TrEMBL record:
<feature type="binding site" description="in other chain">
    <location>
        <begin position="286"/>
        <end position="289"/>
    </location>
    <ligand>
        <name>substrate</name>
    </ligand>
</feature>
<feature type="binding site" description="in other chain">
    <location>
        <begin position="150"/>
        <end position="152"/>
    </location>
    <ligand>
        <name>substrate</name>
    </ligand>
</feature>
<feature type="binding site">
    <location>
        <position position="105"/>
    </location>
    <ligand>
        <name>Mg(2+)</name>
    </ligand>
</feature>
<comment type="function">
    <text>Catalyzes the phosphorylation of D-fructose 6-phosphate to fructose 1,6-bisphosphate by ATP, the first committing step of glycolysis.</text>
</comment>
<feature type="binding site">
    <location>
        <begin position="104"/>
        <end position="107"/>
    </location>
    <ligand>
        <name>ATP</name>
    </ligand>
</feature>
<comment type="similarity">
    <text>Belongs to the phosphofructokinase type A (PFKA) family. ATP-dependent PFK group I subfamily. Eukaryotic two domain clade 'E' sub-subfamily.</text>
</comment>
<feature type="domain" description="Phosphofructokinase">
    <location>
        <begin position="3"/>
        <end position="312"/>
    </location>
</feature>
<feature type="binding site">
    <location>
        <position position="11"/>
    </location>
    <ligand>
        <name>ATP</name>
    </ligand>
</feature>
<feature type="binding site">
    <location>
        <begin position="74"/>
        <end position="75"/>
    </location>
    <ligand>
        <name>ATP</name>
    </ligand>
</feature>
<feature type="region of interest" description="N-terminal catalytic PFK domain 1">
    <location>
        <begin position="1"/>
        <end position="368"/>
    </location>
</feature>
<comment type="subunit">
    <text>Homotetramer.</text>
</comment>
<feature type="binding site" description="in other chain">
    <location>
        <begin position="194"/>
        <end position="196"/>
    </location>
    <ligand>
        <name>substrate</name>
    </ligand>
</feature>
<feature type="active site" description="Proton acceptor">
    <location>
        <position position="152"/>
    </location>
</feature>
<feature type="binding site">
    <location>
        <position position="280"/>
    </location>
    <ligand>
        <name>substrate</name>
    </ligand>
</feature>
<feature type="binding site" description="in other chain">
    <location>
        <position position="250"/>
    </location>
    <ligand>
        <name>substrate</name>
    </ligand>
</feature>
<comment type="similarity">
    <text>Belongs to the phosphofructokinase type A (PFKA) family. ATP-dependent PFK group I subfamily. Eukaryotic two domain clade "E" sub-subfamily.</text>
</comment>
<feature type="binding site">
    <location>
        <position position="187"/>
    </location>
    <ligand>
        <name>substrate</name>
    </ligand>
</feature>
Amino acid sequence: KKKIAIMTSGGDSPGMNAAVRACVRMAIHMGCDAYCVYEGYEGLVRGGDYIRRMEWYDVRGWLSEGGTLIGTARCMAFFERAGRLTAAKNMILNGIDALIICGGDGSLTGADRFRSEWPSLLEELVATGEIKKEQVGQYAHLNIVGLVGSIDNDLSGTDATIGCYSALARICYAVDLIEATASSHSRAFVIEVMGRHCGWLALMAGVATGADFIFIPEKPREDNWRDEMCNIVRHHRKLGKRKTIVIIAEGALDREGNKITPDMVKDLLADKKGLALDTRITTLGHVQRGGTAVAYDRMLGTLQGVEAVKAVLEATPGTPTCFIAITENKITRKPLMQAVMDTKEVAKAIERQDFEMAMSLRDAEFSE
Ligand code: ATP
């Protein structure tokens, strides 16, 4: 009987529980034993109670739970060969030879490394007497499949990552709340959202809330960004808009690669010699990750979890590690490392559609 383990790793994202539930139940449905590794790679390195056999009913009610119920962690030990060696030993001790990992590009890169090292890890375990030579046959190949769980929507090759639409919904809700008070006092708000390297959340929130101005890492602002922003805000104010909303991603940059911070934007909007707006900063922080997943992320986690189990059962030794994507509304399998490499080159947030036009549809823009 095949034993498949599932874990969540890196930053948590809404919808991870849906993915774990689907993997556990699909594995059981396919006649396999299902396991969960608690606390990400940390649990794989620690072994023991961190690796638990799961039954169908153990994941009951998980669709409507936020976060990840099996825990997640950043694990320094897994960056080292010694840590991965212990992880391999723990997998063999539990009889596990297939692993599904739900996490960001870091976690999935770690998974690919683990899989490519697997034969040499086995050799070392045999040489040191940790496992018997006769045991190796059963574990000769490690099947690994990735699921992309991240609120940032920062992996190339998939339209959406599990969790990004929940975070986006949370941001839009928060901006709506802020708008009511901003309008009442005629204030400006600089709202910082998550996204260190990827501005998808800031961009889509800007489009979805009709923000006056946005800053994202993929589109560094020109030197004249100060004038550009102030002119737009001034124009909107002249047309009667009583609120100003500027959305800034954590990783916002200018052309020289200098960070643009919420304080810099606030000082500019509040400058007595300029717009002189009563300006506040709101950092949305972990609210963006919290709470239950929206329907889309539950659906995505479930459909991709089902596909991940199929992929892990069909994986063959020669094929590269795959991850489960959604492309043009279809659940697909794609080579993992290609997507990781593309991610470093493609500015995903702005490769999509006509972002300039969408951002210009702010109410005041066309009223002249
Ligand atoms: P997020 O998008 O939330 O940052 P992530 O999966 O990219 O999620 P990381 O902190 O990059 O998060 O990675 C999570 C864990 O994966 C690390 O703590 C480490 O244990 C493992 N990992 C990441 N990169 C590697 C690597 N190159 N080799 C081995 N393990 C890795």
